[in-house]
Amino acid sequence: MNILVYSGDGTSRTSLIHTVNSLRSLVGQYYDVMKIDATGLLTEPWEDSTSLLVIPGGRDLPFTRDLNGATNDRIRNYVQSGGRFFGICAGAYYGSDRISFELGRTLEVQGERELKFFAGECRGAVYPGFVYESENGASAVGIQLNQEVFSRTQHQQQQGQDVGLDFEETKIYFNGGGYFVDADKYPGTTVLAWYKKEPTQIESDSPGLKAAMIACQVGQGLAVLTGVHPEYNSTHLDARNPEYGPQPNVVNLLMEREHERRLFLRSVLAKMGLSVAPPDPVHAALTTVNGSTTGVQLPPGAIQGVPSITPLFLASIQPSYTAELTRTLLGLADDHGQIQEVNDAFQLVPSLQHTIPAHNPTTPAAAPGLEQEEGEEKITKNIVLCADAPPSTTITPEFDMAHFFQHLQLIRQQHLASNTSSRFSNNLIFGNSLLYGQVVTSTQTMLDKNFGLCQTLPNGFVCNATIQVSGRGRGRNSWISPPGCLQFSMVLRHPVQAVHASAVFVQYLVALAVVESVCSLPGYEDLPLRLKWPNDIYAEAPLDHPSQAQAATAMSSPKVIKIGGVLVNSNFDGSEFLLVIGCGVNATNPNPTTSINHLIRHHNKTTGKTLALFSQETLLAQILVKFEQFHRQFLGGDGTGFAQFEEMYYRRWLHSDAIVTLTTVTPHRRVRIKGVSLDYGLLRTVAVDQQGRDLVGEEFRLQPDGNSFDMLKGLISQKA
C-alpha cells in the first residue's frame, strides 16, 4: 500500500522534504511513501492502493487553483469511503470548511474551501511574523496533548500497543499555521492538541486554549489537520541560518525536544490506524558547540530513521565470471579504483578481506539534509569484488547469494531435463553474475542512469536489494520499499533486427514470467495471480483480507490487489536495444501485506496442502529462468513473436471482454477490451453501443507507455 504526499504547485519544498523523510522513517517499512502531483491525483487510479494522502505545508491558493472540482471530489470520496487524510499547515487550512488568514494584512486570504473535512473555520496565523518561503516567522511553540487520546494506559502496555506517550506537552516547529475555531463543538471532531498559550496576534473570540491539531471523522474515513509541523525534523534545520536569529534560537529549542516530536508524530500516525516502526530505544545524541545544541551527529548523507546505504557485493555462479567482470570494471576505474559515472560514483573494493571505505558525499551539501533531493546526498557506493565465492550470510544476512546460485543451477538442470522446455534451456545465463546490496538507493537507477557502466555489463546481469530508499516506478513514482518485497533490475540486450519481436513486449513477458514462475509449479497452479495491462501483477486477496469483507458486503467479485510491477527503460546501443528491466513483487512480506507467500499460506489453510513457501533467493532464481526461456522463445521459436504466448497471457490477465470508458478521446467512449495487438503490443479495444454490442469498424488502439488503466472505475486515461 502507498502513502501519497502531494507535491504540486503551492507545496513548500522544505515541508515536502521533511514530510517524505519523516514518513519514510516512521512507516516506510510498511508502506511505499510516494509523491504525487495534481495531474496524478486527477488521472491516476490511486485510491484503492493508498493508505494515507498527505497535503503538506505551503500556500493554500495554488491548491484551490489546481485541485478544485473533480480532484477534490475524488479526494473527499476517498476519505468518506474509508481513506485517511493528513493536512499540515496549508494543507490543514485547505481541509477546513473555510479559511481566515492574516485578515486586514497584505497576505490576507479568506473564503470557503471544498474538502470541508473540518466543518468549521481554520484561522491564523496564530503567531505573528509569518513570511512566505522564509524562516523569519518560525518558532518553537508549546502544545498541550489531549491525554484522553495519547496517555499510555496500563492496558496499552499489557497489549504491547506502545503508542501512548509519557509526556503531556512538547514543542513543535510552527510557521504560519492556524487554529480550528470552536473545534470541540463540532460532532465527529476530536482535539488532539492545543496551543499552550493564548495566541497573541488574533483576538480571543472563545474561551480556553486554541486547537492546534484535530481529528475529524469523515464518513468511514479520518482526516487529521494540524496547524503545527510535527513532520519537521530539527536535526535537518541549520541553527546557523540568520533567519532563526542568534543562538540559542528556535532550532536549539526544537532539538531539545526532538525525541518527543518523533514519538508524538509516530503516535498520531498509529492513532490513524497506520502500522508504525518501533519507538526509538534511546534519545538521539546531540552535538553542543559553544554551549548551544546544533544537531545530531549523522554519517555523511544519512537521514535519521532512513536506512543508510550499505556496500554492494559482486559475485557469480562461477569465479571466472567475476574475474572477467572485475577486469571490465577496472578498465572503467581511475588509479584509485573509483568509477565516476553520470549519476553515481562507485569505489571498487578488491576483496572481502579489504577494508570497506566509509561513505563519502560526492558533492558537498550546504545545509544538512535539505539541499539535495529529499535530503539525500550523493554518496560513493562501494562494490566489493567477491572473486572466489559469494559473501557469507554473516555479511549479507538478508540474502544468501550462495543459496541463490545453487538454486539457479538446480532449476536450470530441471528445465533442461524437461521435454517441453529444453529447446530454450541450453546454456542459460541470466543471473550468472549478481550485484547485491542490503540497502541501496535504487537498483534501476544504478543501472539505467549510468549508461557507461551499464553498456559494459553482460546480458542477464542482475542487481538486487533488500531495501531501496529511492525505488523507481512507472512515470514519476518513487518510494522506499517495504520488507519482504523482491526487487531487482537486470540488463537485457534485445536485437533491433528482430522485427517480429518488438521490444515493447518485454514488459509483458517479464510480468508473465513472474506469474508463471509460481503458477507453473506442480501444486501451485490455483494460486490467484493475475496480470493487469500493461505491466502490473495482481492477486485476488485471500478471504481473510479486510478488503474481501467489503467485497462480500457489496456482492461484488473478489477484491484484486496489486502486488508487483515491471519497469523497462531502453537505450540504443549499436545493433541492439540495451534494456534495463526493473521488477518488484511482494514475495515474503509480513501480514497484512498481500504477498505470494501470503497466498500460499491461505491456499494451504483452505485446501489442506503443504506447499512450500518461497524465499527471496528461490523466487528470484525461478523468475530469471522462466523469463530467459520466454525471451529466447520470443526471439526464436517459429518467428511468430508474442503470438506464442497469447493463450498463456490471456489466461492470466484480468481484462478479457471488459467494458471500460476511454477518456483519451472526446467525447469519452465506452469500449470493449479485445486483447493486445501482435505487432506493437497495443491494447486493442472496440466501441460498444448502449446495449454493449460491438460497433464494427470503431476500433481504438492504446500505447502501454502512454495510458493508465483504473480497473475499479473502468477508466482508461492518459498517463501523466
Automatic annotation (TrEMBL):
One of its GO terms (cellular component) is cytoplasm. Pfam families: BPL_LplA_LipB, BPL_N. This is Biotin holocarboxylase synthetase. SUPFAM superfamilies: Class I glutamine amidotransferase-like (SSF52317), Class II aaRS and biotin synthetases (SSF55681). Residues 419-635 form the BPL/LPL catalytic domain. It comes from the Eukaryota. Belongs to the biotin--protein ligase family. InterPro entries: aa-tRNA-synth_II/BPL/LPL, Biotin-prot_ligase_N, Biotin_CoA_COase_ligase, BPL_LPL_catalytic, Class_I_gatase-like. One of its GO terms (molecular function) is biotin--[biotin carboxyl-carrier protein] ligase activity. Keywords: Ligase. It comes from Linnemannia schmuckeri.
